[in-house]
Design brief:
By secondary structure, this protein is of the alpha/beta class. The protein has two domains: 145 residues, Rossmann fold (3-Layer(aba) Sandwich), CATH 3.40.50; 79 residues, SIR2/SIRT2 'Small Domain', CATH 3.30.1600. 34% of the residues lie in helices and 20% in strands. It has nine helices and nine strands. Helix 5 runs parallel beside helix 9. It starts with a helix and ends with a helix. Bound molecules: ligand BJW.
Length: 235
C-alpha cells in the first residue's frame, strides 16, 4: 500500500477476469469455450477466412452480452484511482468497453473494441449496435469483408496504443495486473519485461505464469480487491 500511495506513475493492465463479476465469461478455463471452438480458432484471420458467419455469430453474441452488462466495482475503482494519480494509464486487453463506460479516460484498448466493424479490404467503418453485424452484411460492397475492429492472433496491436503502453510500463513505479492469465503476448510483457524497478502487484483468483515473479499477489475477485485498495488510498 505504501508503494501505491507514493507512486507517481501507475500502469494497470487488465484482462477478462475484471469483467467476470459483470457477468462476462473469461476466455480460458471453465466456460472459456464456445460451442466446442477454441478461442484461437475464432479469434484469428484464418478462422475468419474459414467461417466468417461462425466468427461473427460469436462476436454478435458477445457484443449483445457486453451491452447488457454494466461496469462493476473493479472497473469503477480503476476509474477512481486515475483521479488520484497524475500519471495513470490503463491498458486493457478487453474489448467490452466496460472501462470506458466506468469513466476511465487514459485508456488503451490493446486488442481493439467491439464498437465498430471495419472492412478488411478498404477499411470502411460502421458502428455496431447491440445486435451486432447482420450476417447477410458481412460481404462489403468493395468486395472485401466486414470484420470486428479487434486484434486477432498473429495481428499487430494498434501501434499508437502499444507505444503508449510500452512507455507507461517503462516509467511506472507501480504496475497492477488484474484479471489476466498473462499468457497472451505482447500485452503480458507489460507486466514484467519493461521495468525491473517497478513494484508489480497481481490481482487474480488463480496463479498465473507471472505470479512467482511479482512483488505482491492478491488472490481474490477484482471487484472486491480493487475497491479495497483504492478506498484505503483515498481515505
Ligand atoms: C479473475 C476473476 C475475477 C477470473 N477477479 N481475476 C509464443 C510465445 C509468445 C507469443 C506467441 C507465441 N506464439 C504466438 C504468439 C503471439 C500471440 C500469443 O501471445 N499467443 C499465445 C497465446 C501463445 N500473440 C499475438 O498473436 C498478438 N499479436 C502479435 O504478437 O503480433 C505480432 C505481429 C507484429 C507485427 C506484424 C504482425 C504480427 C495478438 C494477440 C491478440 C489476442 N486476441 C484475443 C482475442 C481478440 C479480442 C477478443 O475477441 O476479445 O484477445 S485472444 C484473448 O486472449 C483475448 C484476450 O484479450 C486475451 C487475453 O486473455 P485474458 O483476458 O487474460 O483472459 P483469460 O481467460 O486467459 O484469463 C482470465 C483470468 O482472469 C484468469 O487468470 C482468471 O483466473 C482470472 N479471473 N475471474 C480476478 N473475478
Amino acid at each position: 500500500m505504501t508503494r501505491l500511495r507514493r507512486a507517481r506513475c501507475i500502469l494497470a493492465l487488465t484482462g477478462s477476469g475484471i469483467s467476470a463479476e459483470s457477468g462476462l465469461p473469461t476466455f480460458r478455463g471453465t466456460g472459456g469455450l464456445w460451442h466446442d471452438h477454441r478461442v484461437e480458432e475464432l479469434a484469428s484471420p484464418a478462422g475468419f477466412a474459414r467461417d466468417p458467419v461462425l466468427v461473427w455469430s460469436w462476436y454478435n453474441q458477445r457484443l449483445a452480452a457486453h451491452r447488457r452488462a454494466s461496469p462493476n466495482a473493479g472497473h469503477y475503482a480503476l476509474a477512481h484511482l486515475e483521479t488520484l494519480c497524475a500519471d495513470f494509464t490503463l491498458a486493457t486487453q478487453n474489448v467490452d468497453s466496460l472501462h470506458k463506460r466506468a469513466g476511465s479516460r487514459n485508456l488503451l484498448e490493446l486488442h481493439g473494441n467491439l464498437r465498430e466493424a471495419r472492412c478488411s479490404s478498404c477499411d470502411a467503418r460502421r458502428p455496431l449496435d447491440a445486435s451486432g453485424l447482420p450476417l447477410d452484411e458481412i460481404e462489403h460492397e468493395c468486395g472485401g469483408r466486414m470484420r470486428p475492429d479487434i486484434v486477432w492472433f498473429g495481428e499487430p496491436l494498434p501501434r499508437g496504443a502499444w507505444l503508449q503502453a510500452e512507455r507507461a510500463a517503462s516509467r511506472a513505479d507501480v504496475i497492477l495486473v488484474v484479471g489476466t492469465s498473462a499468457v497472451v503476448y505482447p500485452a503480458a510483457a507489460l507486466a514484467t519485461r519493461y521495468n525491473a524497478s517497478a513494484y508489480v502487484a497481481e490481482i487474480n483468483l488463480e496463479e498465473t505464469p507471472i505470479s512467482a515473479g511479482v512483488d505482491f499477489v492478491l488472490r481474490g475477485p477484482a471487484a472486491r480487491e480493487l475497491p479495497r485498495i483504492v478506498n484505503a488510498l483515498s481515505s
